[in-house]
Design goal:
The chain contains 2 helices and no strands. The chain has 54 residues and is mainly α. The longest helix has 20 residues. The radius of gyration is 21 Å and the shape is elongated.
């Protein structure tokens, strides 16, 4: 069984390092913001009203 070695690009590694520099409060606030957006988007409905020229 061969295991594939996962490699990250330098940009991805830099993003991970930036994330680790943040405090727990900053991480919590970001997660809360993302959760609220996700909740809003899951409740959203898309309606289409055709354009009627008069």
């Amino acid at each position: 069984m061969e295991k594939e070695k996962q490699t990250f690009s330098p940009a991805e590694i830099e993003l991970l390092k930036e994330g680790l520099k943040r405090s727990y409060k900053e991480r919590f606030e970001m997660a809360t913001r993302l959760y609220k957006v996700q909740q809003t988007m899951s409740k959203a409905t898309i309606t289409h009203k055709p354009f009627i020229s008069k």
